[in-house]
Write a structure and sequence with these properties.
106 residues, mainly alpha, 3 helices
Length: 106
Amino acid sequence: GGSSPLNSIIGQSAPMMAVKERIARIAGLNADVLIMGESGTGKEVLANTIHRLSRRRAEPFVAINCAALHEELFLAEIFGHEKGAFTGALSENADASSGQTEEPSF
């Protein structure tokens, strides 16, 4: 039982129903997701919903405010980095998307 994570997304308009359908499809993929949009539009709500519907739901949910990161740090967090790639890169950080086995198609 229990309530569907999709219920955390309010709205029943046709565009919102399309968003919910897309989220349900994305959640079934083994892929990292980047959600882009204006501040205050609910990106983190969408990301959390995808996570809660995914096979990774038992793993920690990590939301990253990409706009708050310097470009080098953003790229390192998303794609990983080699030791010495930039100041403070003291060890290798594996590719964040290395577990990706499926590519989303819409």
